[in-house]
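User: Predict structure, ligand copper (II) ion.
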Amino acid sequence: MSLLTAPTWASIQTVMLSVSSMNCPVCPITVKKALNKVPGVSKTNMNFEKRQAIVTFDDAKTSVDALTRATRDAGYPSVLAGSRNE
Ligand SMILES: [Cu+2]
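Assistant: Predicted complex:
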């Protein structure tokens, strides 16, 4: 339990994106950079072995569409593979 609780109107979401075109260890770095540039993204974890990106973001500021657009614009199209609310 943190003293710094999130404002109730902000919904922090964590989604899993499948980025199938990551084919070498440098790719996740590029994708991570692209995702971290999206306003509202607070955390990005890349899993190169599974070709996945796990992204935590504020859905008042951004959306899954914006995330997949960011990876696509970086050259790595992605699709939503799962999500959970936090
Ligand atoms: Cu690569």
